[in-house]
Every structure is written in structure tokens, then in C-alpha cells.
## 1
Amino acid sequence: MLYFSRTKIITVILISIIFSFFTLSNFTKFDDNLFNKKINLGLDLQGGSYLLLEIDNDPVVVKDLQNKATLLKNYFKEKKIKLLNLKVSDEKIISFNVDSNDVENTNKFLEDKEEGINPYYEKFKTYQYDIVLEGNKFELKLSKYGLVLLKNSSLDQAIEIVRRRVDEIGTNEPNILKRGNDRILVELPGLDDPMRIKNLLGKTANLAFRFVSKSSEETFGNELLEFDENPDDYEDPVFVSKRIIMSGENLLDAQPRMDSETNQTVVTFTLDRVGAKRFGKATTTGIGKQLAIVLDGKIISAPVIQDAIVSGSGQITGGFTFQTATDLALLLRSGALPAPMNIIEERTVGPDLGEDSIKAGLMALLIGFSLVITFMLAKYKIFGLIANTALILNLLLLIGILTLFEATLTLPGIAGIILTVGMAVDANVLIFERIKEEKLNEKNQVIAFDTGYNKSKTAVLDANITTLIAAVILFFLGSGPIKGFSVTLGVGIFTTLFSVYFIARLLTSLYLMKNKNKENLI
Amino acid sequence: MIKNKIQFNKYYKFFNLLSSVLVVISLCLLIFKGLNFGVDFKGGTLIELRANDKQITISSLRSAFSNMNLGDVAIKKFGKDSDYLIKFEKKGNTKTLIQDIKNNLTKTLGSGYEFRRVENVGPKVSAELLKGGLIAIAAALGAMLFYIWIRFEWQFSIGAILALFHDVILTIGVFSLFSLEINLSIVAAILTIVGYSMNDTVVIFDRVRENLKKFMDIKIFELTNISINETLSRTIITSATTLLALLSIFIFGGEILKGFSLAMILGVVFGTYSSIYIANPVLVYLKVSYKTVIKEDK
């Protein structure tokens, strides 16, 4: 147990030096890229905002069902089958009746894997829609995987839009991740007031240009819409036609601008070809009519059309401040979310609290470390020194490894390091106490040390494995800062075992060989 | 053999009784008083506010918040004199909630304050976090059970697991008694306690098993005492260094880590005690002998 070959000694020293270098690289700047790594600070230490968004997928599902219903109607029309009572119910079921002679045929088309009217997913062994047939009544419901795929595609779209919006604001190093199949996690380091971003992410940004309807007999139907909150000049809700002349999809660009004539802040927009054509036609035929600009179901403004606009660009007025105009332009540029999103969790830490936490954490580490070191020195003298050397290298290794993998350090993570310091000496204590016991029955010191190391091995391993189990479970089931704790605690176990069985044991064996003949070494 | 031997085994019955009473009291507290769940598990909003203006006091904050229609608002000092922790359970529109509160506060108290920390957890997320926390603790207990089951004989497993439950229940009991807040970091602390308690028990059990093979003629009652004494100095030193580290987190680590380090300190104390007075007596009650361990070796 006590013999070390030369190569082993060199390896141990090399490993210690390399990781100490990584630890150092947190405090100095190396030109070399390899060493220029740093531990990431968690949001609780550097300050910042953590937002968890959840997509409300109901509208997406309803829209998908409505599209499907139209598709079915056209598809079966071609096949000369008439769908009666075709409707989408509130329970998210498409239902229709067919003539009893057509039942078999209809079913055949719906179950045909090649036809594509009801796509079959080979991977999941399921159709997009589950079919229930009662007499001559068909009921189509999204299958489990059909729903999952739909949610995933809406999540993919949403995350793209969220990314664009966050990037446009220009925060540093935002972190945007999927969570499950309807959530998006947004981490914004350094942001201490997430108000603006919350506002921007909370908007679907569905833009539509629709005529204000004078007569109640509008072909497409109409609905009563309120004006966007504007406390200065309140306007009564008006009826707006359901027909959409042009939507946000047709926008190429949008920018805030100061209108030099009216001295108002406006949002100017440029349309694509299709949009320009539609807008031109609507403004040509609709001179004198009121055109409502509707965002997420609320009217921003409803100007009267003065001239035909065929240039493909225009402007929106609405009593904006420069800030609100900038944000509206940003929303229009980045596009509409497929569905509304809710912020279901928010955690924001101000930068000075983060700084205070780092200070407190380091202070606790320093004091805890000094206390443990003094205690060990007082208890074991020269072997206390050996254990302490191992402990210091243990700490350097631990921080070095965290740096190498650019792990994220959180406040509980610092607590994990301090706890590691307290528990790391346990292994050496177990060994030293065992050696003391062995010496009671064994005259030869070298043998006593050797058996001490051997016999304490199972206890040391057991003790560390139990802590490791707790750390691993925390890692997989914990969230946020707690994960940081489990990482330092878990990595700490490995560095502890290394420092005890290589560093401390090496030092012990070197010391023992020099002082073989002294009595009562420990 | 060991000098200055302490007769731990003389008090097995007394401490078992004491522990049983404490566990029952803790369980009663849990059932009748319940736990003070934080925002993480109950949902709602937490604001850490620092007042830079001496005019802002706990009573002026109370009256300012009581006019905001947020339901039950709890306000208390947090560490430094000028720091306050404000909690309420109001659910609903989170998009403008914080901004509205800020506007309202500035109107009544001026701008001599800042929000140092804001946490807002929706009801769905808090329910998930609570479920996740419980699953994590259950998984940790299960994993320990499994580990000890493959490492030791079933009598040992029962002793270790009883000690484990004892430590966790008493720790949570203390949190219930003093209405201390249970949040995510407390779950992390409990899991670490589970690891520590197991660690401490296993070291003594390791020695018991070794001694069972060595002294076949000594009764388990006496044998546990020998094993406890042999490992006693290690038990004391490790508890001491761990407690030193934890105390420095508790005292110097800032307000946020207070609950976390307190839970761990309690856990270490209970864990050390239970390794001696719960885990070992169970071996005696289950009549463990050298036959128990020899069988396994075959």
C-alpha cells in the first residue's frame, strides 16, 4: 500500500500541477486558449434573470383541427364523398357523417398509409389522428404522438421567435433552452430588471389589418374590439370585420421613426410583394374607410384611408413613446409566436446581491477552511500537515476540474465546496485512526501503516459512495442552483479520493521511509 | 483493547425511548402544524428589498403593501437592518405584477429602495417542484437502501434505514416546530443529510462486521459497544470538522444559505447520534451474531 513507483509519483505531481493551473486561470489571463478557461458564475452569483415560459398550445391545436377539417372537406370532395355536419367540437374532435354507402370507402382512405390524408408515423406506429366510427359518424381526434409532434413544431417555432426577440434587445450571452415539449427557459445574465423582456416575450404579436365595419351585415362577420390601453385618449370599442386584409407575415421590416411633420413617433413598415399588392388593392377601393391595425386582438389605431398606398410601405401611428414604438417595431420584425406564452416562473437577482453572495461565500470558505486546517494540525501534528497539504490540493483540483469543464458555480455550489472541505478530511482521519489502532498490536511501524491503509479502505469507500449517491440523485432531479451544489459535492468526492490515496499516501510513505526508526510517529 | 471505554450500550433503551418520543412529536408537528413552505413549493412571489432611505421602515412597508390588494403579505427583516423580505401568494398576471408593485411603492415611499431579488413561481411549477423534491428524497432513500442491501446483511439494512428516517424526520420536525422555511435548498440539505447519516452508520457497521468475525464469542450487545468505541475518535473528529465547515457557512455565508446550513448542522448532529443509538441497538434487537456474517461469506 505504501510503495510508489517513480512514474506514479511523477504522474501525481503532474496532475496536481495541471489542475492547479486551471484553478489559477480563474484569476489571471493566459494567452493560451487551453488555459484561458473560467468557471461560469450562476445567475444567483452574477445577477440576472431566469424566466420559464409555457406555451398555451390550445389555440394551436384548434387551428390545426380547423385546417384539417377544411383539408378533409376538399379531399373527400375530390373522391366524390360528401361530408355532412362537418364540425370541430370544443373537446377537440372533428366529426362528420357520410352516406352509409360511403362508410367503408371513407374509412379506407383514412387508414391508407400512402394517401397522406391521415399521415402514418412509422416511428411511433401510429396515425396522426385516431378514428372512432359509430354507424356512419366519424370522429377524428389527435393521437398521442400527433399531439406531441404538433406541440414540438410549435415549440420549435416559438423558441426561434423568442431567440430573435431576445437577440434584438441585445443582452449579453442569453441562454435559451427547450424544457419538455411546451416550455422555454430563458436565462439572461446581468439583467436586473426583466420588465421589458417580459413584456416583449409575453406578446404573441399577431398583427392584422382589418376594416372597421359600419354596417352590421358584413359577409365575413365582425366583432367588437377594444383599443389598446391608452389612458390619455380613451376610445370606445368599435366593430371590426373578421376579414384579414393583410397580416404580420407579409412584413419585411419595421422600424421606429420620428415623423417630422406631425412630431409623432411612428412605426414604419415595409411589405413583401404579396402584402404590397393586397394593401394597394384594399387602400385603392377603400378610400374614406377606417382601417384598423389590430395587434393581439386589440386595436392600436384605426386611421381613415386618405390615399391609395401602392408603394408597399406605410406607417402606424398610435400615440407611441419612442420606447413603445421601438418595442412594437421589434415585435413586428421578429414575427408572431405560434401561440400565446405565459411566464410561469421568474427568478431575478440584482448584481449587488450576487456580489454580496460571492463575498459571503468566499468568506465562509476561507474561515471554514482555516478552522478545519487548524483543527487537523492541532490533532495530528505532522500528519495533520500531510492531511492539510492533501486538502489544499484537493481544493485546487476541485476548482481546477470545475474550470476545465467550465461548470457553473452557484451559491449552493460554494456551500458544496465548503462541505467538501469539512468532509474530505474524514478519509484521512479514518486512515490515521486505523493506523493508531494497528500500532497497538504491531511493533513494526511500516507494517502498522500498511495494514492501517488496507483495513480502512472499505470504510473510506463506503463513506464516499453514500455521499456520491446523494449527489448523483440531486444532479438528476435537482434544478438550477441546487444542480450546482450536486456538481461540486460529486466532483469533490473524486478529488477527495485522489488527494487521500495519492497525495496524502505519497507524503505519508515518504515521511515514513525517512523516519522508520522513530517511535510513535502518529 | 481500548482504554477509557464508554458504556454506550447501557443507555440503548433510554435513548431509543427518547428517539421514539421525538419522532412521534415530529410526526405530530408535521401532521397538525405542517411545514412553512416557501415560494418554491407553495407558489407566489418573494421580493428581497433593500431600503436606502431611512424613512422606509417595516411599518411603512406594511401599510404600502396593504393597499395593493395582494392578499396576505408577510414582511420581515432579512439579515441587515435595511433589508426586508416580502412574500405573498397572489396569483394571476405575472407580466406586469412586479412593475405595478414598483410603481405603487415609488408613489407612496419614494424611490429610496431597490429590489435585490424577485422570485415568482406559478402554481403549476411549484406543484412540480414539490413533487420533484419528494421524488428526489424518496429516490435517495431507495438508493441508500439498495446500496446497504448489497453491501451488508438485512439486519444491518434495517438499522441503517431506521437511523436514516430518524434523522430526516427529526430535522423536518425542527423546521416545523420553529416554522422555518422549506425551500429547494432544504431539499438539497436533506439529501446531503441522508448521505452523511448513511456514511456515519456504515463506518461503524463496517467495524461491527469485522469484529463479528474476529471475536466470535462476544455477544452482539457488547460487540456493538466495542465497535462504537473503536471508531469513536473518527466519529468525533469528522463530525467536528464537518460542523466547523457548516458553522462557518451558517455564520458567514449570508442570509440565503442560513436555512440550508442549519438543516445540515441539525442533520449532522442527529446523524452522529443515530449511528450510535439507533443503528447499533437495532443489531442487538435483531440478534445479529457471527453466523449472520459468516453465512454471507460462503
## 2
Amino acid sequence: MFEIITPLFLSLIVGGTLVGIIFGAIPGMTATMAVAVCLPLTYSLGLDNGLALLLGLYVGGISGGLVPAILLGIPGTPSSITTTFDGYPMAKRGEGEKALKIGVVASLAGGLISLLVLDLFAPTLADFAIEFSYVEKFLIIFFALTVMAALSSDMLLGVFSGVLGIFVSLIGVYDISKGGNGEMRLVPPGLGYWLENGFSLLPVLIGLFGLAAILEQAEIGVPKGHSTKDIKVGAHSRFSFNVFRGQSFNLLRSGLIGTFVGILPGVGGSAASIISYTNAKTFSKTPERFGKGEPAGIMASEAGNNGLTGGALVPLLSLGIPGDSTTALLIGAFTLQGIQVGPLFIGNNPGTWDAMIIAMLIANIAMFVLMYFAIRYFALVVTIPKHILFPVILMMCVIGAYTINYGIMFDVWTLLIFGILGWLFTKIRLEVAPFIIGFILGPSAEVYFVKSLESFGTWTIFFTKSWIAIVLWVLIVGSIAGSILMARQKRRMEDHG
Amino acid sequence: MKFTRRSFLAASSAAAVIAAPLGARAANLPRNMRMVIGSKSTGGDTYQTSAMVADALSKKLGINIKVDAVGASDAFKTLARDKRGTTIMIFHDQSYLGYLYGVTGYDNIFADYAIGPTVAINPGNAYLVPASSPYKTMDDILKAAADGTRIRVAIQPGGVSEIGFSAMKNAAKVRAPGSEDNIVAVNTGSQSDKNQAMWDNLADVINGSIQANEQFTQLDSSDPKAMRFVWLTARPETLEQAPEAGMGGTDRAKMLSFASPETSVTLDGSKDFTFDKEFFFLFNKDMDPEISKAIDTTLGEIYASGEIEERQKAAFFIPNYLPQDQALKHLEDKRDTYAKVIDDISSKS
């Protein structure tokens, strides 16, 4: 088994992980892009070495997203949105290095939990995954959407923002490749040429988080001669493993949620960190600290999104069905080498299976080592004067938006439109986090909701389909009730000063 | 040696010159070309075959060709915008089937673009039933429809996935007029959705492919995931060119048993319906014809040397180079055949 660990194999994993981290850390670049760029290289590398490179890119790409999420408040990837909620407030109060290290350790924990699950239970879990039809997938998305209420400072405005996000996400063609009818809807007259495919996620995401923050700062203005020395990286932000005391269950739960969401094809990676984050907040003794720089929030988000990495490989290697957009590309690597992926893959290719498990393990360790020890240098980003930093960020955002769909100029306009919208949101008290969650989950919610009704022909199917549906309803009702109780508690505290 | 800024610039310039492609074949052939494809997936068959062709062409022509998986709608828009010849496109029969089925974003490629040479066929388009299904063959399915049983077929509407479904309805109509109404579409999305529709008992038959579904046909019949091929739409002449070992546990002889003439889905009562998923070039109509000619001629030489054919066969594609003029006639004939099938059954689901 260990004969596959050659110097080339190791260096491809470590190199892939490093490149993946860089892709993940640049807003607009994702793990999927990193894998897509390097996919043709795997033809000459052979299957095991090619997979080593791609899995390193995958793990690094998912993990790298936490860097800009924490230091700049811009999620490097959609799955690190919830990392911004507590990471950025920590960075703003001078705990950027600490927040980054918490994120890296949580990422390692999530990655290893999912790897263990992948190694031990892959075929069994794949059989369980096919129990999830349109109905159960809709209920999972619905459960993730209930987080909108919990993440809002004003519940009514938060839910409104979320519903607005869903509405905007539905603009364009109801895509036939997702089971839609191919009809265009919600597109203003004359804009059909540009809005045929709606707004792309990443330009919207970068605009709302990145450009809007720059506009806000521009409005405040940077005092003359003032650098960002107010954000210090030093003794008071020192990281200690003690911060994880009492958080083992949070890490385990979040890693398992991420793994579970990854196992379900079509649910999407962002849902993993969103559900993990909501659960951490719901079960926390101090939920009011979430969103203001609570380390447990970063742990949940990062363990959740790295938990996805092993989970998404379960349906790929057991059913030939990718769990997310990045693992969809891995099928290309197998096909290039003439290897079929399906229910017989693990039994027919034990060597490749072992190579993948080892590569994932090494990639997770490499990610931890590379990021943990490089963090002090990453963290120096906050010491760059804003009048230099912001134009650079803006340029990176524009390049990221332009390249995400291979050079579509409308994506740059999308970035600018949503940047201005994000800035306006703060003026009219609409909330960005619920909006973006609605925007991300809206299309899946629509497809699974419509398909459930089309397939089963009755509303009652959402309650009667299976025991899984009933469990999900319990979680949904619990999440909504929890949000209402938290909001009432918060109001009482505010009333009592 | 002292490394000055000037020496750095000189070295950089020299490296850039060496790295630049050496002498393009046609004087007006762009040095950098963008090949857009009609799929957004870089793991699918369109990307795979386009990457092989782009690689061979760029080596032979000494130019750079980058494959971008932008999807059909954006690929057509990009191609329509670029008259300089720096953007070319590869797609398959979906490009005209989408138009025939009235899908948003699909133009009449024969009127709006120049059809280029064909390059390969994916012979894998298939229809499957659960291993426990009472239907063992297409004949069983068409008989059941004639007897009044409703047959649900999971497809992705508006293209390659639907054309086989339309052919089933057409065959049912030819065999027993009126029975075509008993063959109904279950509109799904990806292959994963189609498989899931079968496992949820929402579909009796699903569209799939040899590549994606073959392993499910090797599972023990007691496994709820187990499937069985009932029809491969490819022409027998196409499948005969596939490797003898076939794919996985299904060898070429077995594949041929699921295709015409052994498995018959009639077109008009005398001939069988067949469908090869064929990949071909599309060019901007106003592009310099010298550029498309250079690409066509070079492809002819590449295919004559045989190297790309080996690579395509290893990836389970059937090499199928037809020069530009022959390709146009061939694809127009295909389009006319399928347009008639679609018109006859008026299935625009």
C-alpha cells in the first residue's frame, strides 16, 4: 500500500495543496478553477499521481478561502461565507492571526473526520444517499434556508433580504440541464441577451462582500497619514489550543454535517458550512456572541466546509456521481486514463482507492503545515495601508469576476452592480448574509421543490415521503423556533439595557 | 556574471520568443485561438474530445489553442461576435437538436454559422431499465405501450437525451398508432437525477450512457441500484469500430446486441432509427475562409497519421473525421431525419 508514496507523489500533493491554497485565497478563484486548470496535466502524470495533484488542489482550494474571509471579510470561496461572520470581526479587533489558526485547525479536523468516514463507510453511505429523493433534498435546502432568520440582526428584514436573494437568483432561464423547462423568466425587457443565464454567483459574492466593503471604507475615508496600525498582530491576538476546550463536539458535529452534505449530490458545498454554523449557534450557550467574533463560529464553518471534501468523494467513487462541482472534474481525470467510476470502482481498483485515501490524508496534513506556519505572513495583509490594499483587492476582484466564466464582461458589471447594492443595503438596513444565502440556495430550492411536486403530484409528499423527511421537518421547526426564541431573548436584553 | 535589469529583460524576451509557437501554417491564422465548447463541464465528453483535437491541432499548426467550457448559450454568443477567426467552437448534435426542440439560446446553426469538419463520435448514448424490470427489451417496452401500459422515460429535454425518447414514441406510433401517447417523458436534469428517478420508481426507463451506467449493469440483480441496457442508439457500423473488449464487463458483441439491427426501434416500418452523438466544428459565418480551410486541411493530415485515432479509441470515442463540405451534407441529412421524427410525433416537451 505504501509503495505508491514516491517523492513525485508527495511533491505533487504538497505542490497541489499550495497552489490550491493560493487559488482559494484569491477572491474569485476557487478550488474548482484550480482543478480545471490542472486537469490536462494529469494525462501525462498517470492516474495515481494525477489524482494526488488534483486532491491536493481540492483540499488546498477549499481551505484557502478562509484567508480573505477572515482578513478582508471577503469569502475566497462560496463555502467560506460563514467564516466571514466571526473571522472578520476577530481580525478587526486585532485577532486575525488567532482567527486564521483556529480556522486552519478546524479545517484539518473537518478534513480528517470526512476522510475517516470516506475510508470506512463509502459504499454503505452511497446506498444511504440514494434514499434522498427530490423531496428530502428540498427539505435539506429548506433547513439551510432557515438559517437566514438566525443570522439576521432584525429577523423580519433578514428574512426579507433572504427572500429577495432567492428572487434574484431565479432571474434567467430555468435551466433544462437542471430539470427546468428552458423558459426565461424575471428578465426585464431588453436585457435577455445579458441575463439569459442570470447573475453568476461569484461576481455577486465578491461584489456584495468585497466591493461593498471598499465603498463603505471609501465613504468613511482613511485619515491622513494613518495606516492600519490600529489592527495589530501581536501578543494580544496570540493563538492557544485552549480555545478548542469544550469545542470537540462542535468540531465533530460540523465535520460530520459537512461530510453528510457532501454525500448528497446536488445539495452544494455552501450548504455544508451554513448548516454547521447554524447548528453551532443553536446549540451554543452563548449564541449572542455569534457574528461578533466567536471562535466557535469559525470552527463550525471551517470544519463543515472541509468535511465536504471526503463526503463529496463518496458518491463519486461509489456511484460515479460527483458530490460537488470540483469532484465533477475529477471524473475527467479518471476518463482521461480510461478508468470507469461507478459502483464497482473501489473493488476493481483497490490500488487507486488506497492512493486517493493516502493523498487526501497527506493533503490535509500539508494544508495544515503550510497554512499554520505561513499565517503570520498572511496576517500581515492587515498592516498594508488601505489606500494601497483596497485598489489591489478591487483589481483582484475584477480579474476574478472576469475569469470565472472564461472572460464574460457582464460578470464584471455584475460585480459592480452588486457592490453598489451591497453598499446601499447597509443604508436601508437590508442584510447581506441572508441575501447571499438565499441567492446561493434559491436555484436548488426551486428545482427540488418543483420536481417534488411534478414527480409526486401532491403537497402532502413533503410530510409523508419517508422517515428522513420527518426528521428533517423536526430540524426545520426546531431551527425556526430557536431563531424566534433567540430574537425574543435579544430584544428582552436590549429592553433591559 | 552580473545580472542586470537589461540582461533580465533580454533573457525574458528570448524566453518569450522561444516559447511562442513557431510559424503558423496559414499566414493569417491567429497565433492564439480560443475553442469554446457547448458544455460547461470539463469532465464531460465534449471537453474531453475537444481537448484532444485542440492539442493535436495546436501542435501541428504551431499555434496556441485554449479550450473554454462556457456552455452552449455563451459559446454561440461568443462565436457570433468574433469575425476575426480567433474563436472557434466544438459541439455535438445538441447544437441543432436544441433548435429543433425550441430550446432557448439555440440558433439555427446551418443558417447562422459555418459548419466545420466532424471529429469524433461518442457511441455511448443508451437507454436502461432497472434490473428487476419486467421489460427485458425495447420490444417488450413498445408492446407494453401498445397494450395500454404507461411507460415513463427519464430524459433531459431538448436534445440528445430526448431524441431517443422521440424515436421510441415514433416507433410506437408506427407499430400501433395511438400507443405513442403511453410513452411519456419524465423531465430530469443530470445523469444523477435520471438514475435517482429510476431508484425512486419515478421512471421505468432512463436515458444514460455506456460510460456512466455500465457498472450499474454489472451489479447483482438483487441490488436495488442494478440496471440493464435495453437500447444503444449508435449505428452498428459505429459500434463495430469500438475496442473489442468494449467497456468494463460489456464487450463489443454485447453492445451490438443492444443496437440496431438486433434491437430494433423502427423509424418508418422498414428502417431502424439510429443516432450517433457526433462532435464537429462550428465557425463564425463571416470568418476568413482561409482559416477554416487551414484547420480542415490540418485535421485531415492529423487523422491520416493515425495518432489521434488511437487516443480517441482509448477514451472510448470513435474517430470520425469528415472534411468540412462532407460534414455539412452529412449533418444536414441527420438534421432532416430527426426533424421529421420530431414533427411526426409533435413531441416538444
